[in-house]
Amino acid sequence: MDKIERITALHRILKAARYPVTVKRLQEELGCSRATVYRDLAYLRDALMAPVEGDGEAGFRYQAGESERFELPGLWLSSEELYALLAAQQLLVRTGGGVLSGALAPLQKRIEGLLADHAGVAQWPVERVRVIPHRGRRLDEASFRAVASAVLERKQLAFEYRARSTDERTRRTVSPQRITHYRDNWYLDAWDHERRALRSFAVDRVVGARVLEEPAQDLDNAELNQHLASSYGIFSGEPKGWATIMFSPKAARWVADEQWHSKQEGRHLPDGRYELKVPYSVSRELLMDILHYGADAEIIEPAVLREQAKSLLELALSNYGRK
Question: What is the rounded distance in angstroms from the CA atom of residue 239 to the CA atom of residue 305?
Answer without folding.
Answer: 14
